[in-house]
Amino acid sequence: MTAERIDGKAFAARLRERVGEMAGQFEQWSGRKAGLAVVLVGEDPASQVYVRSKHKATVAAGMESFEHRLPADTSETDLMALVDQLNRDEAVDGILVQLPLPDHLDEQAVIAAISPNKDVDGFHVTNAGRLAVGQSGFVPCTPLGCIMLLTDRLGDLSGLEAVVIGRSNIVGKPMAQLLLDANATVTIAHSRTKDLPGVVKRADIVVAAVGRAEMVKAEWLKDGATVIDVGINRLPPAEGEEKGRLVGDVDYSGAESVAGAITPVPGGVGPMTIAVLLRNTLVAAYRNAGLDVPESL
Ligand code: NDP
Predict the structure, then answer these.
(1) Which residue of 149, 206, 243, 289 has the fewest C-beta atoms within 10 A of its own C-beta?
(2) 211: left (phi > 0), else alpha (psi -120 to 50), else beta?
(3) Mutate-to-test residue for ligand 1 from 230, 247, 249, 280, highest number of ligand atoms within 8 A of CB
(4) Could you tell me the pTM of the whole model?
């Protein structure tokens, strides 16, 4: 058996198209474009790439992109003042502070300063709380993208055994919460889990969000399992290569012969993250304008 390849890139492209159409409708109804403000502090090369691609995707979806690039030595007072200004700016529906921040800045304090109604990353404790108690808020983009791929492939997740490997606040925990909301039976595994292969073996759904190259092996998987690989790991360059290959947390080539379906890396979960960010921003815009959020978002 060869697993079906879950094409996150194609799914994300369709989602972006839908968001683009609805961003046009939003503009007609409200008389303004939905707006996303992205704040980048310092010059971390990976963060610069992410911020650039978020800007391009926002503009391509017919939304306004406000970029704020601040020097690495920006004080917390100045960063907070900018966040406060963006909270009050009616042209800004979503605010994203690109992480990681330089060491002298307190990430939790900065996230806490963002208005929960503009927190399109879903990192604010208010939004984590809303997710935990089943109220509508903003859900972190990566796990929301994963649940979209899962329901698209499997439909109803009721009663399925799901194992999430990883318990970070931005991926593992919200992922588990979303699976629970979808009535899956959820186990969260982490670095202290005993017999991880045995735990994974019973899963109909495996979500790997660890950050360890090809850690999850084919033998760990139940036949026909649906595997969502969130990990992005760069291998050391092989001979003749300038850069090493990007791989996930799952040994894709082995898993392909056991799983029912699996996301590739790259081209699986990665493209979903930005598409969901655009979706969350447009949802924020509808809510902030007092309009009903279209169901197809
Ligand atoms: P974190 O480092 O915050 O969390 C990793 C989790 O994996 C922790 O809960 C840790 O357990 C667990 N873990 C570490 N080693 C093991 C092990 N040997 N066995 C079982 N569990 C283990 O990472 P993130 O959640 O932020 O990200 C995870 C991965 O997803 C990374 O590769 C990251 O690059 C990628 N990512 C991809 C995104 C995308 O858009 N596709 C977006 C966000 C992240 P413990 O808590 O016990 O330490």
Answers:
(1) 243
(2) left
(3) 230
(4) 0.97
Q: What are the phi and psi torsion angles at 48 (to 5°)?
A: -60, -40
Q: Which of 168, 246, 249 to mutate to test the pocket of ligand 1 (most atoms within 8 A of CB)?
A: 168
| Annotated catalytic residue 204 | no
DSSP state for residue 256 in the 8-state scheme? T
Contact at 8 Å (CB) between 121 and 83?
no
* Ligand 1 close to Cβ of residue 191 (< 6 A): yes
Torsion 80-84-85-87 (CA) sign: positive
Contact criterion met (CB below 8 Å) for 272 and 18: no
229 catalytically annotated: no
Residue that the structure tokens 């318990």 belong to: 167
- Asked about 98 being catalytic, the answer comes back as yes
Q: For 228-283, how does the pLDDT look when each residue is reduced to its tens digit (9 = 90+)?
A: 999 999 999 999 899 999 999 999 999 999 999 999 999 999 999 999 999 999 99
Which listed residue (33, 93, 119, 121) is catalytic? 121
Q: Is there an atom of ligand 1 within 6 Å of 95 CB?
A: no
Whether ligand 1 lies within 6 angstroms of the CB of 210 is answered as yes
In angstroms, the CA 53 to CA 15 distance is 16
Pairing type for strands 261-262 and 64-70 reads unpaired
Residue 163 Cβ < 6 Å to ligand 1: no
**Cα–Cα distance measured from residue 18 to residue 25, given in angstroms and rounded to the nearest whole number:** 11
Task: Please answer whether residues 138 and 163 qualify as being in contact, where contact means their C-beta atoms are separated by less than 8 angstroms.
Answer: no
Tokens for 206, please give them: 């495996």
